[in-house]
Amino acid sequence: MPDEIPLPPPRLRMGGAHFASDEDFVAGGVRDVRLLAEVAGLQRDSRLLDWGCGAGRLAIGVKHEWGHVADYHGVDVQKKLVRWARNHLADDHTRFTLVDQHNDRYNPDGKTKRRIPADDGSVDVLYSYSVFSHMLTDDVAGYAQVMARVLAPEGRIWLTCFVEDGVPDCVENPQDYLKLDWRGPLHCVRFDREFFESLMAAAGLRVDRFEHGQETDGQSMYVLAHA
Ligand SMILES: C[S@@+](CC[C@H](N)C(=O)[O-])C[C@H]1O[C@@H](n2cnc3c(N)ncnc32)[C@H](O)[C@@H]1O
Question: Range of 143's domain?
């Protein structure tokens, strides 16, 4: 692996113990780039939007795997993370945007208007790892609409979230779920699978692929496309 690609200090890494070590952090990003290539059509000439990018774990994966894609755009609400990413990872093909949208867990004083800073139809692959796992129904439904708007006609959305069959539509910090101790605002938001997919359908998105429970802490993976 190239040594010169910087890594954020552990205090700026999202994902807790899963991405705490340098090896796991880099391996997670590289693995996701390969997966995006395999199931979401990511190529070197893609326009890739990393919504909820944290300190740029996927950007680091892109740099390790391919050097760059045509346009990597990381977007997040946390100033310290975006500032680190911009200072250490930005280049001609890699950029980061700080947005000030509201999230009770990550940016409680932010604006309630839902916004993803991308032109309509301009994103080939929209990656969103563990972002809907920290949002309630109104935001998931609203952001799905925004995602659909910015997605290119043949584009794909790759995301993770907590979904199960036969559970209440939406529960914040469900007790005795996956044997983890969920605490604080929006630590874990779990959806009923059918209900979640109805929100995606209402936004004009169809499920291209679904894998249950294999991602961090038992999240599931979706690949979505225009219906
Ligand atoms: C669990 S972290 C995952 C970080 C990164 N995707 C990863 O896998 O390493 C969720 C991220 O979503 C960001 N986030 C939450 N609401 C957001 C919003 N409305 N717009 C952009 N980012 C948001 C948080 O600030 C946080 O960095």
Answer: 10-226
pTM for the whole thing? 0.97
Q: Which atom of ligand 1 is nearest to the CA of 19?
A: 9
Domain count, the chain: 1
Residues pairing with 103 in the sheet:
107
Residues in contact with ligand 1 (CB, 6 Å cut-off): 14-15, 51-54, 57, 75-78, 81, 99, 101, 103, 106, 129-131, 134
- Whether the CB-CB separation of 47 and 122 falls below 8 Å is answered with yes
Each residue of 76-100: pLDDT tens digit? 999 999 999 999 999 999 999 999 9
The CATH code of the domain that includes 139 is 3.40.50.150
Which residues fall within 8 angstroms of residue 195, CB to CB, at 6 or more apart? 169, 170
Q: pLDDT tens, 11-47?
A: 999 887 888 899 999 999 999 999 999 999 999 999 9
